[in-house]
Write a structure and sequence with these properties.
With 421 residues, the protein is an alpha+beta fold. The strands form five sheets. It has a four-stranded antiparallel beta sheet with strand order 5-4-1-6. It has a four-stranded antiparallel beta sheet with strand order 9-8-7-11. A three-stranded antiparallel beta sheet has the order 10-15-14. Strand 4 and strand 5 form a beta hairpin. The two termini are 14 Å apart.
Length: 421
């Protein structure tokens, strides 16, 4: 078998997993109880690894807030000193099969959604979406109000969601996507239909919850039209757990930004990151006084949903998001066609009515991206350098990280050839 044939076979295996996996939101538990490698002094952060001295101010605030939340330090200043002394371990969330959107971080006691791939056995994790309040750890803020919300999630909302989901037997995420196909979600930055359908499946199991704050929790859940993003991230992480075990595969298995660098992971090289300068998300500002100079580079793990074919990959499914961020239907179709040109598979369970009932593409192939010089488009919210959301839009994925990843696969193939004599 030639090297090309070996890579093609590895990629076929990766695409089979991506298209046949069955991710199910199965539980909510404290991070330390379920995430492999988690410890009381570990904080998981979005994006590829970055030396602590280069961590951006919003992520720094989130890390320090998490350390204070865990009772490991009394102030944010003390917490940062602990990080600098190496007493706090800061690691990329995706290396632990966890997704942290925007500036969010995960520490030991925080409740995380647990997703299980019931075909291939992988598990993935993500924190609970905090809701529409802009002042939250997810956007790099921490004070007494944020701490009160974090404690409420830990002590009330997270446990109640866990009880409800366990009673339900688990929520099949593919069923959610299939039921809401044609309702305008691209399921990265826009998912009101999926979130509402999910609420219909979970809230009945919350109605008899013993927690005295049950009604408040139900209201909070029902009012959050971004909720579905986080169980979907956990679901994708449960799938990528399996494709990261396929040597020589050039299929993308992870992607994220840390505000400074953007990186990808390939199925063939597991948790190894290939990085370059993070692009800035172009689109619409939430405040007309903001400029591009106010924004960080691409930040967050939520684009892992695009590894599964959502977001910019299925842009044509969510025309309202394109309109909101200053673009057009033609551009939406172009984004999805670009993704199809550099992908190896297609999901058929959620056909898009206004795209001739085509499914959305999946299985980005780094070889095609570099060889055809076609760069997929990722959707995302933009973070301000000072903390908070600056806007929303899209960014072209940078070519250099795909080139570096292919160089690594090339080295792997040479090493394998030498072993085989």
């Amino acid at each position: 078998m030639t090297i090309e044939q070996k890579v093609n076979a590895a990629n076929a295996q990766a695409v089979e997993i991506l298209t046949k996996a069955r991710p199910v939101w199965a539980d909510v538990q404290p991070a330390i109880d379920v995430i492999p490698g988690m410890s009381k002094n570990t904080v998981l952060v979005p994006g590829p690894p970055l030396p602590v001295e280069r961590i951006t101010p919003p992520i720094r605030t989130s890390i320090c807030g998490a350390v204070v939340h865990e009772g490991l330090a009394k102030t944010k200043e003390d917490a940062w000193e602990m990080v600098l002394r190496g007493e706090i371990t800061v690691e990329p969330a995706q290396n632990h099969q966890c997704g942290c959107a925007a500036c969010m971080v995960v520490s030991a006691s925080m409740p995380v959604m647990v997703a299980e791939d019931r075909v291939y056995g992988g598990k993935g994790y993500a924190p609970i979406h905090p809701g529409p309040n802009p002042k939250c750890l997810r956007w790099g803020f921490y004070d007494e109000d944020v701490e009160r919300d974090l404690s409420w999630f830990r002590d009330h909302f997270g446990p109640a969601l866990g009880r409800a989901v366990r009673k339900s037997g688990g929520i099949d995420l593919i069923t959610v996507l299939a039921k809401t196909a044609g309702m305008g979600d691209e399921n990265h930055n826009r998912q009101p239909a999926a979130s509402m359908y999910l609420a219909l499946q979970v809230i009945p199991w919350m109605l008899d919850d013993p927690d005295p704050q049950r009604d408040e929790m139900i209201r909070h859940f029902a009012a959050n039209d971004r909720f579905f993003l986080h169980p979907m991230m956990a679901g994708v992480e449960s799938i990528t757990k399996s494709i990261k075990k396929i040597p020589l595969s050039t299929v993308v298995a992870g992607m994220a930004g840390n505000g400074v660098e953007f990186g990808i992971q390939l199925a063939g090289t597991g948790n190894r990151w290939y990085t370059t300068q993070a692009p800035v998300i172009q689109g619409t500002f939430l405040n007309p006084s903001y400029t591009e100079a106010d924004l960080l580079g691409y930040l967050g793990d939520s684009c892992v949903t695009e590894v599964y074919g959502l977001g910019g990959m299925s842009a044509i499914a969510g025309p309202a998001y394109l309109r909101m961020t200053g673009s057009t239907i033609a551009e939406a179709r172009s984004r999805t066609e670009k993704a199809r040109a550099v992908s190896l598979g297609e999901h058929t369970f959620a056909p898009i009515p206004w795209d001739d009932f085509k499914g959305f593409p999946v299985g980005l192939d780094a070889r095609k991206i570099v060889g055809l010089n076609i760069l997929p488009i990722s959707h995302g919210g933009s973070a301000l350098k000072k903390g908070g959301q600056g806007g929303a839009g899209a960014a072209e994925l940078p070519l250099e990280c795909f080139k570096d990843a292919l160089r690594a696969i090339h080295k792997e193939t040479l090493a394998q050839a030498e072993q085989e004599g």
